[in-house]
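Q: Give me the 3D complex with S-adenosylmethionine.
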Amino acid sequence: MDVARVLHANGGAKEITYAKNSSAQKQVLSLTKPFVEEALHDYFGGTHIPDKMVIADLGCSSGPNALIPASEIIDTVHGQCQKLGRRSPEFMVFLNDLPGNDFNDIFTSLQPDFFSKRREDEQCRVAGVPGSFYGRLFLSRSLHFVHSSSSLHWLSQIPSGLDAKNGPMQNKGNIYITKTSTKTVMNTYKQQFKTDFNLFLKSRAEEMVSGGRMLLTFMGRMFDDPTTKEGFNHHMEMIAQSLMNMVSEGIIPEEKVDCFNLPCYVACTEEVKDIVENEGSFVMNRLESMQVDVVDCEGDNVLLSRGERVARMVRAMLESILGYHFGMELMDDLFTRYVDVVNSYLQTANYKFTVFVLSLTRQ
Ligand SMILES: C[S@@+](CC[C@H](N)C(=O)[O-])C[C@H]1O[C@@H](n2cnc3c(N)ncnc32)[C@H](O)[C@@H]1O
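A: Here is the predicted complex, encoded as C-alpha cells.
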C-alpha cells in the first residue's frame, strides 16, 4: 500500500468527517499550548525576533483544528513584540499534509475567518504544502518554528516485511502489535519508526534556521514493552476484534485480516530520546507525556453514546486506510460492530491515550 497516496483524514464529501470528529485532537492542542508559548518565549527571550517569521504546521489535516496552532503562534509572538515595543514580524504560515488532505476545506471555509481575526498591523500569508513530512518540503534554512500535533505516530509505510505483498503473513489476527505478535513483528515496527523519525529530523534540520524551535506532539506509550495493554494498542485490538467478528460470519476472508498491519507506531520515551540524540541536530528541551481521555472530550457529538463518539473519531482518521484494504462498502458494518465492542469495554474502564510533547531547538 502506498500510504502517502491512500492516507487522509475524512474530508468534506464524507458523512463522518475529521472536521466534526476531532475534539480529542483539539484537546491535545489546548493541553500543549503552554509548551508552544514556552518555546516561543525562550526563542524570542531577548530581542531575537526576525523581521520575517516562517512557521510550518506539519500534518495539519482539515477542519477547525487546522489553523489553531498558527493562530496561537502568531498571537504569542505578537504579544511578545508588544511587550518589547516593536513591530510584529511578517508571518508566512505553511500548512502541510499528505496530498489527499482536504486542503479546500482550509482555504475556502477556514482561512477567511482566520484572516478576519488578524490585527491590522499583522502581515500574514498562508500556503498549503502537500507532501510527506518524511522528506524535504521547504527551502533550506528557511523555517523559524515547526509545529506538528497528533501526526508523527503515522509511519511512512506499512513496515517493510509486514505489507501484504511482501511475503508470508506474520501477524495473524492482529492489525498492530499485541501479546501474540512475534519479536520480528515488534522489531520491524520499531525499526520503521526509527527510520522515519530519523528522516523527519534530518529533513527539518536542513530546513530550519539555527536556533529555530520545533514543538511536536504525538501518541506514545507509557511502558517499554509494546505488548503491555494501554490506550493505543488496546484500541487497535478492538478494531481487530470487530474485523474478526466479520471473518467469523464469512464477510471478510481471514487472510485479509492476517495480511493487514496498520502503518502507525507508538514509541516509548527511550526510543524517542535515542533517535533524537543519535540524529544529533537538535537539543532536546522537553520530552513529557500526558494522558488524554478521548471519550470525555467536550465538543463533538455529546448526545451520542461514548462508543459511538470513539468510533466516529477513529473512523474519521482510519477509514481511508481500512476502506482501501477491506473495502469501503464494509466500513458501516465494521464501525457498527466497533461501537458495540467499545461500549462494552467502557462499562468498566476509561479510554485514555498517552501523548508525548517533544520540544526541540535546532543547534
Ligand atoms: C490526527 S490528524 C492531526 C491533525 C491536526 N494536526 C490536529 O491536531 O487536529 C493526523 C494528520 O497527519 C497527517 N499525516 C500522516 N502522515 C503524514 C505524512 N507523512 N506527511 C504529512 N502528513 C501526514 C494525516 O494525513 C492527518 O491529516
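A quick observation: The beta strands are 52-58, 90-97, 124-130, 143-149, 208-220, 282-293, 352-362.
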